[in-house]
């Protein structure tokens, strides 16, 4: 929801629309101001409520969802693995999110620049679709940005509790340096069975 709000708030149209009453400029688009409120936000002659920043977030989301096809909605709720995220797949299926699982890298010993370039290319594909909704890229950075060559690696969570070290901020900086928006950690979990395969993800 926060990501969608940020995207909707940052939109700036480049084409004006006709207006019969007093007009003003707002976010790069000619808009109509009626006596009580800013009433129009136009793109190529059509009023698009979901791109109007003066509307409530819920109203804008309802408007956007009302314009989307079932295929577009499914695509936006879908997250695919990096190795399957080809440009034609991103565009054809309106993919909303891509992830790198453990060991999923764009190239052996890939630099931060290589990661940034990959994420940017995928983002271009997402933005080229009908509504231009940005995709979200996630990475399995569970103990440091461990997929990235020469990133800082920390112990697994099971060994961090006694150290009282705060690694979240450090990991976040290294994740953002690769152009990635979010990581799948830290997590909160309860392990009642030591035989659980992911018990090491629990803080001590």
From TrEMBL:
* UniProt catalytic activity: Hydrolysis of terminal, non-reducing beta-D-glucosyl residues with release of beta-D-glucose
Q: Which domain of life is it from?
A: Eukaryota
Q: Which residues form the Glycoside hydrolase family 3 N-terminal domain?
A: 69-204
What Gene3D superfamilies does this protein's entry cite? Glycoside hydrolase, family 3, N-terminal domain
Pfam families, per this entry?
Glyco_hydro_3
Class in the EC hierarchy, top level: hydrolase
GO MF term list: beta-glucosidase activity
The EC designation for this entry is 3.2.1.21
Instruction: Provide the alphabetized UniProt keywords.
Output: Glycosidase, Hydrolase, Signal
Q: Which family is this protein grouped under? A: Belongs to the glycosyl hydrolase 3 family.
Q: What is the name of the protein in this document?
A: beta-glucosidase
What organism is this sequence from? Answer: Forsythia ovata
């Amino acid at each position: 929801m926060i990501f969608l709000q940020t995207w909707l708030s940052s939109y700036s149209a480049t084409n004006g629309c006709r207006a019969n009453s007093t007009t003003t400029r707002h976010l790069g688009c000619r808009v109509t101001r009626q006596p009580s409120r800013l009433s129009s936000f136009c793109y190529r002659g059509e009023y698009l409520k979901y791109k109007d920043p003066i509307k409530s977030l819920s109203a804008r989301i309802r408007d956007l969802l009302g314009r989307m096809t079932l295929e577009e909605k499914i695509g936006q709720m879908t997250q695919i693995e990096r190795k399957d995220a080809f440009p034609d797949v991103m565009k054809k299926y309106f993919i909303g999110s891509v992830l790198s699982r453990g060991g999923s890298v764009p190239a052996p010993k890939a630099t931060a620049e290589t990661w940034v370039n990959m994420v940017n290319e995928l983002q271009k594909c997402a933005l080229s679709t009908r509504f231009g909704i940005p995709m979200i890229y996630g990475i399995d950075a569970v103990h440091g940005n461990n997929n990235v060559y020469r990133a800082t690696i920390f112990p697994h969570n099971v060994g961090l509790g006694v150290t009282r070290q705060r690694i979240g901020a450090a990991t976040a900086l290294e994740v953002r340096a690769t152009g990635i928006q979010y990581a799948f950690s830290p997590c909160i979990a309860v392990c009642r069975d030591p035989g659980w395969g992911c018990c090491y993800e629990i803080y001590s």
